[in-house]
Amino acid sequence: MQKNRKRYIDGCQSTGVYMKILILSDSHGNVPVLRKILAKEMPCNYIIHCGDGVDDLQHCDTRTAATLLISGNMDLGKTNGYARRIITSVGGFKLFITHGDIQRAHQDYIELCEEGRQNMCAAVIFGHTHRPYISFENPMLFNPGPALNGLYGVAIIDDRIEFMHCNIDV
Description:
The protein is mostly beta strands. It has helices at 31-41, 110-118, and strands at 2-10, 19-24, 46-49, 66-69, 85-90, 93-98, 123-125, 133-135, 140-143, 151-157, 160-167.
């Protein structure tokens, strides 16, 4: 597994509790790759799937982690009615999780930033573009890239939140 581009936000609001978050998006039916990623990265506290293949996780063992699941544009009408956006606090950090199509992420990231700022989120986690991305704007933006191709992200929370892009051989 290759990890690169470590990035973090110092956490004056952090609970100081160590947590590991596995961040997935755009698996598009590639369950064998998801299983490889999970085998490599488990255990973790949370699994986030930012949509487009969110139901693929039903074919994987995720029982030891809490899941935060988003429907992507390709999931509409096929999934169990997952939310299109979630705003939640994990380890003291407020996160905005979405697929990105509603905010037109293929064009630019302006709407993602605006929605994250309006909701006072530390980070926006999204997919949709099939391109790994990280930015230190306020809020921070993180796209893990497509799990379909073996790309994913990991976030570590202790006194700060740190995002990493990761990959496995497909």
